[in-house]
Design a protein that fits this description.
Length: about 150
């Protein structure tokens, strides 16, 4: 009976792993298409901004048009940065689903992550505080370390 339960749990974990990899790969393909479309939007918004500036300098249009096209360009650039971040997060998720990941155990990072979670730094723990300073940026990007 115990063996059947263990086999079922093992099969479930394998199915979950395959699903996670398939989901990450599917998202990667659509994200790449979205990024390409967003890059095209940034390029066209940049051209629109340059044209509106030229129209303003030649006296054809008001400065409000320049500001509006500049706002559109900045919004498109911000969207591109956001999509690139999503792509990188997807890449990390795919790496983790394929068996990679961050192993905190057996490392100095584990101690720093634990102290970071508890927000505890003993007065005599100068080396721990120094490690915290060094690893703070790394930990900020690790969603499993900062909960």
């Amino acid at each position: 009976m115990q063996k059947n339960v263990q086999v079922a749990q093992y099969e479930k974990s394998i199915q979950t792993a395959f699903r996670e990899v398939a989901d990450a790969l599917a998202a990667r393909g659509t994200l790449q298409q979205q990024i390409e479309a967003q890059r095209a939007l940034v390029a066209s918004s940049g051209a629109s901004y340059r044209l509106s500036e030229m129209r303003f300098h030649s006296g054809v249009d008001a400065y409000l048009t320049v500001l509006d096209s500049q706002r559109t360009l900045y919004s498109a650039q911000q969207g591109l940065v956001s999509m690139e971040l999503t792509r990188l997060q997807n890449l990390v998720g795919l790496y983790k689903a394929l068996g990679g990941g961050w192993k905190e155990a057996d490392s100095r990072v584990a101690r720093v992550a634990a102290a970071f979670r508890r927000r505890e730094f003993p007065a005599s723990g100068r080396s721990l505080r120094r490690e915290y300073g060094r690893w703070r940026r790394v930990l900020a990007g690790c969603s499993s370390c900062v909960s």
